């Protein structure tokens, strides 16, 4: 379907996606926008001009400075607004006077993306990080416990842990190399992390929550999801390895997590559906009716330093053992309440080949090897990394999601 | 120091403590109160009647329905308000006309505690649970990995993990027995938890936070703490044991955490200071100048069922390897931001003897033995538990903190 807005210049911000975000400009306070082509559609202004009047819901939810209230309005409302936006923006719209042919309104509500600042799209209550990438899990086992095999629970349930919500930042925020405690020559020591890494992940924002003590049925679970973002789970491997027995990662992870600023609604991803890797029969509470419950979305990873920009990895959201519906069914099985704005992430999305990995830990075998990359551009020069250097810019991109980017700042 | 308010009837709500909480009654919306004797002092009403006019700060922080804004005001303000309250309430007050001798005002601002409902005192962003009880850690090791010794990092850093904030509830909220996945006869299965347990903990609420990328100096860290509560970290042991390799506890913990409703300010606990157990020299970032950095506060644990109320354990907040100042210095060492309302807990506070344990896992050696208790009262009948039964009421009490109580509701 084509739009009268113009070319998306390869960003994927076409009519297919229409992701939501929170933006501000020099003249506009933080507000909800929808990405289309090179523009952000100002949803606050559109709402105030009563463009959504035909849809019955609390319109003030679209005038807020986070997406929480709108996300909580439920899928039916999101579908209705999306349909109206599709009609409003499509080349052969029947609503021309509402926007396409209304020059004054276009000036007011179509904001050039290049001049806008993007913010965290939701106020995040709890953040959960899973570990459902089977190739990632196998590689980690091979590195840290060679010959040990995957943990006995690994195929039976989605292994996960609670992450830190306070250090989740919007794409573009610099990430300071953390200091911490790790072991050098068998002695605990304190200093700047020596093994700084990233992790390519995919994450869902919760729209509607569940009450404490209730659980979410696996076949209903998608209705609780508002949409998806790319996520970089920055990791300090030396700190993490030393601290995480027996209770899991802590300071090795809680210093920063970056998300892409645009939340792609669940409705936009139907075309990418795919069957998950199924290795065992699931217990009934995880046995979903839907066959194609995961997504096939490539995520391109690049590294940029003063010498150039390098093509690093190509991961994929399909490299998981469980769907988001299964993650939610498991997470709430004991009655744990989800709240609007909670974030649920997959864990590292490594694939089977060396160029499909999702972190340097795997590519360098915990720093033993160096991973070589080729520059994007005509010169095709090379660089390599075992772990990240200060100044490195790590960027994840996926069509329609925009960019999840962060630069490593030196320790203070 | 005595108060004109009257007897505290053994609750410990004397002038020494003056804890803050959020209460409501049939006639009053949720608001800040201070516990004194059998009463709650209505801080919203007192503020509106300009009783705190002599202290310069944003007085609207005391008119809110959570303690977050007031907690963020900083220690100097809290000290000032506390001094004024001490003067206002002491037997030989020089401020008699302000309250003691003002019958009208007394009627308005002194609310009978027995008729009030207590709520969560803070809006909680992130919740961190540590594992710094050395006797608890040793007992767990003996049960699950006999002969293995403590983890190698255990003495060198405070081991901890992120917990679930959405399922933290105020004392009195029923706790539903969670369903979940665990192993029976070597097969993963799904059903109501068979090994339901509690954990006696002590927790601090953050007052002022730190910026992302900055860290909190160990000798400054107490200034970031608003006050303390008792905490019950309900635990589903069968679920926890199966799920927690390699990333730590998840559904075994995230179904419920209960806190006592009254936050005892840091200032009130000076009299309980004690030296922590020091087993090794700390790295400099954890090496605090203050010697007596932990507290000696007994916590009494009782179990009540239809047959009576039983004296179960007597734990103590001193059974820890690290102070809260050290916990905060470690937690923020890598730049992790604390926010007002974040909750930091010690982990289980077991002591050295059988009657000083902090959970049934230890007392029953993971369900192998039965732990016998004697009833409180003249009949001194006995009962025993390996793990909790439906209907059991678990209560923690400490002088001046009130009660942290929850009843086990059956699975649905």
Automatic annotation (TrEMBL), chains A, B:
Which source organism? Oidiodendron maius (strain Zn)
Lineage of the native species? Eukaryota, Fungi, Dikarya, Ascomycota, Pezizomycotina
Top enzyme class: hydrolase
Which residues of the sequence carry a binding annotation for Ca(2+)? 129, 199, 201
What GO biological process, any one, is recorded here? L-tyrosine catabolic process
Quote the protein name from its UniProt record: Fumarylacetoacetase
For this UniProt record, give its keywords in alphabetical order, as a comma-separated list.
Answer: Calcium, Hydrolase, Magnesium, Metal-binding, Phenylalanine catabolism, Tyrosine catabolism
Xref: Gene3D superfamilies: Fumarylacetoacetase, N-terminal domain, Fumarylacetoacetase-like, C-terminal domain
Cofactor(s) in the UniProt record: Mg(2+); Ca(2+)
Q: Where does Mg(2+) bind?
A: 233, 253, 257
One Pfam match? FAA_hydrolase
* Biological or metabolic pathway of the protein: Amino-acid degradation; L-phenylalanine degradation; acetoacetate and fumarate from L-phenylalanine: step 6/6
- Every copy of the Fumarylacetoacetase N-terminal domain together lies at 18-121
